[in-house]
């Protein structure tokens, strides 16, 4: 894209990538290549920055691309559904949430997930109780029963 098409502003791309497994194949290559960024440079930097995480953990990433084709990116904590599925040991959520139960999760686990999610920039201003309530809603939509 030319600078005239973007208005000379920074562009933002949201990606959900596996930690330590980024490669310039779809979805990374087309998403960044269309904006003039070398996908291999991004992949090397992303894999280096997520080396401390377990390989394969889904990592939401926010890539900001400047008009001069340089980029910066922010990695966030894995999605709540990833933590809930891992904690309860289920592969996928319920087909009919509220009507069928796919597993159970304890309130202690939900509290621990809330403490991890509280480190995200967009959730820092919220009290832990509010984050816990959001996670309770996600667990219900996955068909999980919350036990004390």
Summarize the helices and strands and which ones pair or pack.
Layout: H1 3-6, E1 11-18, H2 28-33, H3 39-49, E2 58-65, E3 71-75, H4 80-88, E4 103-106, H5 107-117, H6 128-141, E5 144-147
Could you describe the 3D structure shown?
The chain is an alpha+beta fold. It is 37% helix and 20% strand. The protein has 6 helices and 5 strands, in the order H-E-H-H-E-E-H-E-H-H-E. The protein has helices at residues 3-6, 28-33, 39-49, 80-88, 107-117, 128-141; strands at residues 11-18, 58-65, 71-75, 103-106, 144-147. The strands form 2 sheets. A 3-stranded antiparallel β-sheet has the order 1-2-3. A hairpin with a 5-residue loop joins strand 2 and strand 3 (71-75). Helix 4 packs antiparallel against helix 5 (107-117). The N and C termini lie far apart (54 Å). The relative contact order is 0.14. The mean pLDDT is 92.
């Amino acid at each position: 894209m030319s600078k005239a098409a973007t208005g000379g502003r920074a562009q933002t791309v949201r990606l959900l990538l596996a930690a330590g497994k980024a490669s310039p194949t779809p979805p990374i290559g087309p998403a960044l290549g269309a904006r003039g960024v070398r996908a291999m440079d991004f992949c090397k930097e992303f894999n280096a920055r997520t080396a401390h995480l377990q390989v394969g953990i889904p990592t939401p990433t926010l890539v900001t691309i400047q008009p001069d084709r340089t980029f910066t990116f922010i990695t966030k904590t894995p999605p709540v559904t990833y933590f809930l599925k891992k904690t309860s040991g289920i592969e996928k959520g319920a087909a009919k949430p509220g009507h069928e139960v796919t597993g159970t999760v304890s309130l202690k686990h939900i509290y621990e997930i809330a403490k991890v999610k509280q480190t995200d920039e967009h959730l820092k201003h919220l009290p832990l109780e509010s984050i816990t309530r959001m996670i309770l809603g996600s667990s219900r939509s996955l068909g999980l029963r919350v036990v004390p």
